[in-house]
Specification:
This protein is mainly α and 414 residues long. 81% of the residues lie in helices and 0% in strands. The protein has a single domain, classed as Growth Hormone, Chain: A.
């Protein structure tokens, strides 16, 4: 018997698929955060220079920069679930390599950088396929709330991951990497089991390069999209202090690896509180102005953290940084997803992830390099001031983004 037309949405969209997606994102993000704590501490313990931490970000950024846009085209031409699953398997392989290096050459730093390059390549393929998948799992009118739920899982993992990584690393790095292997593997298996709606691409004679260029042109032609992703790029690029947290934990706040775990978790704790709030109460109006305001708060909190020498106040500043950043992320993600047609989701997601990856991983390199040149505290404070300048400049460059009132207005202004 054929299903009634009214039953079709129920057959296409299942609560099970969104739940599985959220679980997989939590597990993979938690594994990534646990691993990040271990790698940062291990490398800084071997080399003891801020630049060595900056290179951790650079080694991941370069392959992500080169592969993210082609990966977006892959996500539009092939099954996103399969691409994300294979990328998760490669991340598990990298964790296994870190485990082997810790056992065989624990005091030689360059092999760790080499594996970080491979890990960056895996992230380059995982991010666009995973981000473009969510609109195929829920109805469009539920998408902003689904983004908030997914963000809640992400930030919960960013809270739990660093703290867990700090405690596990205190017991020894081997336990960290065993957990990461299991986590990335489990997430990959879960993603491969997702159902939901499938997008069947139209036949096209365009080359891969032409399709990638089409995605870039799509974002460039829409001031709201371009303004949102570039604001995130330059604000976090200048204001990110995460790469320097091992220095603060060891040399400024004297908190040790467990303290480092709490410092890494504090921004996520703020983000989680906001994300949970947004699952119940969506931002209803003045979304553009609120996005600029929260990025400015992020800059002020960065300055406060940079100047702090008291551990509790440092945690509070990082908490505020995470809370303000989550509001910005929720607005940006909702604007982009609601303005993107199905045929472009993978490529637009890849452009967005390229900007996000640049702001995070390239930001780590920028922070490490600047700290090596002018000192750790001046580098963080200067970054916070730079974020405030970016907000002022972007409000002038993208007035249409500043004046967006409701999410439903995005199609009219793009």
């Amino acid at each position: 018997m054929r299903a009634a037309v009214s039953d079709i949405p129920t057959l296409i969209y299942r609560r099970r698929d969104l739940s599985l997606f959220v679980v997989s994102r939590f597990i993979s993000t938690c594994a990534m955060q646990v691993q990040s704590v271990a790698i940062g501490w291990q490398i800084y313990d071997m080399v003891r220079t801020p630049l060595s931490l900056g290179l951790v970000g650079l080694c991941q950024f370069v392959p992500m920069f080169l592969l993210t846009l082609p990966a977006g085209d892959f996500a539009d031409r092939f099954n996103q679930r399969r691409v994300a699953s294979l990328a998760g398997g490669l991340q598990a392989t990298c964790s296994a390599l870190f485990l082997g290096l810790t056992l065989l050459v624990p005091h030689t730093v360059w092999p760790f950088y080499a594996v970080l390059i491979l890990f960056g390549a895996a992230r380059g393929f995982a991010a666009p396929s995973s981000q473009s998948l969510l609109p195929f799992l829920v109805e469009q009118d539920r998408l902003p709330r689904a983004i908030s739920i997914s963000s809640s899982a992400f930030t919960a993992a960013v809270i739990a991951g660093p703290a867990l990584g700090g405690f596990l690393y205190a017991l020894g790095p081997l336990s960290v990497y065993v957990l990461c292997i299991a986590g990335f593997s489990a997430a990959a298996i879960i993603v491969s089991r997702l159902g939901g709606r499938y997008f069947v691409p139209e036949a096209s004679l365009a080359t891969g390069l032409e399709r990638v260029a089409e995605g870039v042109r799509f974002v460039r032609s829409r001031p709201v999209m371009l303004g949102a992703v570039s604001l995130d790029l330059f604000a976090v690029l200048l204001g990110g202090a995460t790469a320097l947290l091992p220095i603060y934990a060891r040399d400024i706040l004297h908190a040790g690896p467990i303290g480092l775990g709490f410092l890494r978790s504090a921004p996520a704790a703020g983000a989680f509180v906001v994300a949970f709030y947004l699952t119940r109460f969506q931002i209803a109006n003045r979304v553009g102005a609120k996005m600029f305001a929260t990025v400015a708060v992020f800059g002020v909190a960065t300055i406060a953290f940079g100047l702090s020498t008291w551990f509790p106040f440092s945690l509070l500043a990082l908490f505020v940084m995470g809370a303000s950043d989550m509001i910005s992320v929720n607005i940006r993600s909702s604007l982009i997803q609601l303005a993107t047609p199905d045929a472009m989701r993978g490529r637009v997601s890849s452009v967005n992830m390229l900007f996000v990856g640049a702001s995070n991983e390239l930001g780590e390199f920028e922070s490490g390099t600047t700290a090596a040149l002018m000192g750790t505290v001046p580098a963080v404070v200067a970054g916070g001031i730079g974020t405030l300048l970016v907000v002022a400049i972007w409000m002038k460059l993208f007035p249409v983004l500043r004046t967006v009132d409701k999410f439903t207005d995005v199609e009219a202004v793009t």
